[in-house]
Every structure is written in structure tokens, then in C-alpha cells.
Amino acid sequence: MQYFKASFIFLTFIGWSDARACNNSPELCSKSYDRVTYLGAHDSPFIRDASTSYSSFGNQFFNTTTQLNAGVRLLSAQVHVAWNKKTGTRELHLCHTSCALFDVGPLKDWLFDIRVWMDKNPNEVVTLILVNGERIGARELESEYSRADIAHYGYVPEHVAKAPPPSNETNPTWPTLNSMIDSEQRLVSFIAPLTPDQANAPYLLSEWDFVWENPYEVTDPSNFTCDPDRPHKVTMSNAIESGTLFLMNHFLYWQQAFGIQVPDSRIVNTTNAWEGPGSLGAHMLRCSNMMMRQPTFVLVDFFNVGPAIKTVDIFNKVSKPVGRMNVTGRVVDVGMDVNSGGRSAGLFTVMVGIAVAIAGGWNILF
């Protein structure tokens, strides 16, 4: 076994086997897409590290490629319209709430990084959830996928605007991970909001046709619930009966001055853990019991802490993951005194964000 050390990352590639391992486990290959739970990195490209001066708005400590290497299989991001400062041309960028606050660059560059990773990892199924901040059309989004050369991995369902009924052991209504890999349709893209375009972009799916979510704006761990929140007017009973997939939001915000909320890393060791008050495991168990099936997606901040991936492994009955990178479980945040809850270097970023928000008259939620 070889160990590689780089900064805070400790890499251990474990358990190689001759059998195909789908999403790091041979046991998952025969399961249909909707009967697996996928660990999700909330706001995947928005990083709290040295490259962003440990921005208080960052949701993850490690970049998207590291997330994927460590077992994350759901990536969420926010897409906004930006204008090239040199040419004045319209571009699609990944921005946290507003491109004036936190702009990490063009959407196509992030998609290209994911494509490179998928090229190198041919037995992995990846899901994207894009918050479409300015109702960008499917054709324009499709052009970004094409420019990143990732469109050919796109999964196209039988019906592009309706979820199939839920799978069971004898009737898989979604394809198995094996079949998605064999067909090379192993990138599932949900976008909200989106008007589907079956003729030109059949692999870009409206999130609310296929997915429902519980509340996401939580500042107290006692307030994690399983109640449907989006899309509007959905109830638990019709969500279960419709076959739409459950995305369980499980991350905390820290309330700042002027109504600004930032990702809360102070108690994330408990938030992402298997057990304890407000823990990921307790939340998943409660929701699974209510729904009589496990969540399809769980979305967390600071995925490496807890670590959240172990909780998801328990639900997937994965005891020996294959080919996964081990990443430190530490809270890697130089701007946070985790024990006292105080903030030092990160305070400057918060104050800059407050000033920009006041000047622009924005209501900053995340």
C-alpha cells in the first residue's frame, strides 16, 4: 500500500479488485440508479482554502476533483450570467449567490475538470445539480457541456420530463449502474429551474420533474426535517408515490449581521457524523423510516469532516470501498477557532460580503 501526502490530503487507494467496482463498490453495480444513496458536495466549486483566502462563503475545503476521488458522486453548483471584462461578451460562470461576491470562473472549465476525471474513472456514475440563477435556457447550457466535451456522457431517460415510478428489487425502473456505465450514459444532470429541450439537450433534466428536497436554510441542528420544501406544493405522500428522487439537504448556516448566512463549520464534526444530535446518520434514518426507502442524495458542506462518506457507506451496505482516496477528516479552516466559535482571518471576507450586499441591496442567503 502506498501513501502520498500533499498539504492536508492523505491519499490511500484501497482494496483493488479484479471485479468491476461501480462508484467504488462491486455491490452497487447491479443496483438501479434510484436505489443507491449518493454523497453530495453542496456548492462543490466554492472552496474555503488558500486559493480563496479561506473565504467564509466557501462550502468545501477541497476542490471538485478531490471530492470525486474521495467518493462524492453528486456535485451541486450555482450558474449565473457574467460578462467578460476584456471582450464584454456574455459568459456562464459559477458564482456564489452573485458574481460580485464569489466568482470561481466559467462553467465550461468546471465541467471540463469533471470530464477529465470521468475519462480516467470509467466505472463511475456522477450526478450534477445546477441552480440556474438566471433561468438560462437549455440550448445555452448545452453549449457549455459541448465545449467541455462532456455532453456524450449525458444520461437520457425514456421520458425527459417525468420521473419513472420507484424501482424495487424485481422491477428496476431506472437503469442499473452497470448498464449506465456500459452505455456510457453515466452523467445525470438536474437543473432548476429549466424548460427541457428534448430535441437539442435531452440529457439536461428539470430538477423538479425528477427530484424533491427538504428545507435547506437551516441554522439550528434541531431543525433538520424530512418535510418536502421544493418543488412547491409537493407532499410526502405524492412525492413517494410519484417516484421522484429524494434529495436530503443536511448542512447548516451561521447567521451573520445584516441577514447574511455563511456555511457553518463550527460543529460540522457532529453535523456530518453517523450519530449524535443533528447528525447526518440520525437525519437519514428518520427520513428513511418515513419514506420506507433511503434518500437518493444527501447534500453536505465540508464533505470530508465527520466523515460524511462513512455514513453513506452504511446506508449503501458498502464495507470495503475500492479505489477511493482517503482525505483528512480535519476542519481545514484557518479563519475559524472551532473550539470557541470565534473567527479571525475569515472575518474580512464576511465584512466585504456585507458591504457589497448593502451596496447592491441584495438579500444574501447562501
Q: Would you give an account of this structure?
A:
The protein has 366 residues and is α/β, with parallel strands linked by helices. It has one domain (3-360): Alpha-Beta Barrel (TIM Barrel), CATH 3.20.20. 24% of the residues lie in helices and 19% in strands. It has helices spanning 64-69, 107-120, 138-147, 177-183, 207-210, 236-242, 268-271, 280-291, 308-316, 346-360; strands at 3-6, 9-12, 38-41, 74-83, 90-95, 103-106, 126-132, 187-192, 204-206, 211-213, 245-249, 253-255, 261-263, 297-300, 336-337, 342-343. The protein is globular, with a radius of gyration of 20 Å. The relative contact order is 0.18. Residues 1-17 and 337-366 have low confidence and may be disordered.
Task: Furnish the topology, listing elements before pairings.
Blueprint: E1 3-6, E2 9-12, E3 38-41, H1 64-69, E4 74-83, E5 90-95, E6 103-106, H2 107-120, E7 126-132, H3 138-147, H4 177-183, E8 187-192, E9 204-206, H5 207-210, E10 211-213, H6 236-242, E11 245-249, E12 253-255, E13 261-263, H7 268-271, H8 280-291, E14 297-300, H9 308-316, E15 336-337, E16 342-343, H10 346-360
Parallel strand pairs: 3-4, 3-14, 4-7, 7-8, 8-9, 10-11, 11-14
Antiparallel strand pairs: 1-2, 4-5, 5-6, 12-13, 15-16
Structural descriptors:
366 residues, alpha/beta, TIM Barrel, 10 helices, 24% helix
CATH class (first level) name? Alpha Beta
How much strand content do the residues show?
15-25%
SSE order, as H and E?
A: EEEHEEEHEHHEEHEHEEEHHEHEEH
Number of strands: 16
